[in-house]
Amino acid sequence: MTIIHNRPFNQIKVGDTVSATRVLQLRDVRAWGAAFGNSSAHDPESDRKGAVAILTAALTALVGTALPGPGATIRSFSATLAEDAGDLFDTTLTVALVVEATSPASRQITLAGTVTAACGRSIIQAVIQVAASLHPQQREVTEHRLDGLLDRCRTLQPMLTGIVHPCSVEALAGALEAAQAGLIVPVLFGPEAELRAIAKSAGIDLTGLRIVGTSGPEDSAMQAATQAGSGALQALMKGSLHSDVLLHAVLQKEAGLRTGRLISHCLMVSAPTYARRFVISDVALNVAPDTDQKRDICQNAIGFARAMGIAAPKVAVLAAVETVRTAMPATLDGAILAKMADRGQIVGGIVDGPLDLDAAIDADAARIKGIRSPVAGAADVLIVPNIEAGNMLYKNLAFMADAQTAGLVVGARVPIILGSRADNGAARRFSAAAAVLYAQALAQDPSLLTPEVAQ
Questions:
Q1: pLDDT of residue 2
Q2: Is residue 431 in a domain?
Q3: Are residues 401 and 342 in the same domain?
Q4: Whether the Cβ atoms of residue 355 and residue 318 lie closer than 8 Å to each other
Q5: pLDDT (average), residues 413-417
Q6: pLDDT at 37 (0 to 100)
Q7: Is 387 a member of any domain?
Q8: Separation between Cα atoms, residue 454 and residue 135, nearest integer Å
Q9: Is residue 99 situated within a structural domain?
Q10: Which of 79, 83, 139, 359 is deepest in the core (most CB within 10 A)?
């Protein structure tokens, strides 16, 4: 939850400005089109109109959240799209407002709104007349989109990250994309001749990058894990090797990365049609965890959620129903984990279960079912029964609902970015940002990883 404050009229001066950056993706526009009943989805002209609509909405969002902020009323809005606006997708766009005039008699301000590309090319010019509040106001806003993760990283140093066996164009390009976003400083672990040949074939420049030569995937994983365990690296990122090979190396005693807790995968999700972001665990690592393993999965997810900015995560242990039934093991796990949290065996969040998915995320569903719980209808973390349920839920949201995702393996001494081959550029950036924030949070508060719990 974020609290935003307004600027009262008497505190606004000509020349005041605010701005935000956004990388607009084609999938954003198509989700917008579906939400508004646009039957021309996947038509280039329709996509372009949708992009303009989203960008003009971003200008009005800045009015409502930053300048003047809560309490402002838009009186008029006019916008012009540049004829040579060019490609609007997959490039960094800056949305900005500048105060051009103020009128004390009507407490109105005139704002010049602009959307510009990274190269400085003008996309949209707007004039907005706004009535500002005379008094201080504030509003609580639930964080939704994962772009906020990138914003939080802008003032942080990029993280020294071992890229483990990036012997494919996609793996190399993904690492360099995270580096260009200022999130990581990559160190490549792999056969040097092969890496250079792949880079040359794809036109990828490896100048200035450190390469640690290895003999194959297992050697790449072991060398990277050992350097991370010694403190020479702050994070690991999977390249083109199999996940099992990387995680086997991470779990070796000589790597020095084990903490005594189960490692698990946490995925932060932002779905366009749901007004809060949430964490799902475990969707990629632990196949059929038992109750004790789910305890560690819960604790890891709480630490991850707190590092992402959720101060007191509400954790829902999911099952098919919300009542305990001895024939359904997932309901027993939910009840046991909730009681373990009551007894201090899981700390840092509020745990309840069993809860079915609708009761966990929808307050009306919980009310209709008569469920009284601080978690029901407001879950920040969803603990799934097994990997099949989690993987299907995640892929449904990512591929059919255009959700943004950011995933990490947690529970080791450093975060591990375990991306999927199907991840798009945004998912790779968000996961790298999550790793930066998680590592920073661990440095400030090691108890996120190793809290004191009742035995």
A1: 67
A2: no
A3: yes
A4: yes
A5: 96
A6: 64
A7: yes
A8: 48
A9: yes
A10: 359
